[in-house]
Batch of 2 targets.
Target 1
Amino acid sequence: MTYEEAVEVLETMEELYPGKFKLTKRRVHFLIPRLEEMEFDGVMGKLFNHASAYPFPPTIADIAHHLPEQNENLEQVKQWEEEAAKVPEEVKQRFEEMFEELVRKVSS
């Protein structure tokens, strides 16, 4: 999330919990970088869910929402599948025949 969105999260917490959550320079200095690592919509959703269930302010861990990390292996498999889809059927058939012949030779 952006700096402005992180500030919005903290201001919303202060508004939702008047007298229980006070923004100070020190708190802002500490929390903004942690919030910037997170996803704004997910954090706000968790904040509103927390506010509807609990009378006390959440910790950052309570409202943390990170986007899932990109799986590079999965991306590579998708790329290979796309490349394989472009190979003509005749080539695939010939490869399979050659592979089966190789397996027969090695296993004999």
Target 2
Amino acid sequence: MRAYIIEDVEMMREVIFSFINSIDGIDVVGSAGDGNQAMAEMCKLQPDLVFTDITLPEVNGMEILYLLKRKFHDVHVIIFTSFVTEEKIRLAFEGGADGFIEKGADMNDFREAIDILQRGGRYFDKALSQYDSFAESSKKRAFYRS
């Protein structure tokens, strides 16, 4: 599986890149710190899996989610963010996100998300269960979570 990382904080991007790239069967083919650069590179690289922060310069992570799902129907997109809100959860569900991870989560949540995606599921961090929009949306869609 070919992966791409989008995170504007360089140190965080490097940590996620290294961790994801260490997982068997995953090849991180690129990364970017802003949405414009990411979209340009992903159109060429066509990754199978994209991890994107929401708060990004130029094009934000939710816009990336919607654009990727429209252009590449088979791409898996996992959203990760420090600032979880009801609205972000709702937009992620509506946009077809394959996963949602809160940045305070353990790095192994990224590994678990990949495992679940490879089995045909969707991964949503257990911390999201406190939000009404997650509880309501999760009743309507099949998914797995830790």
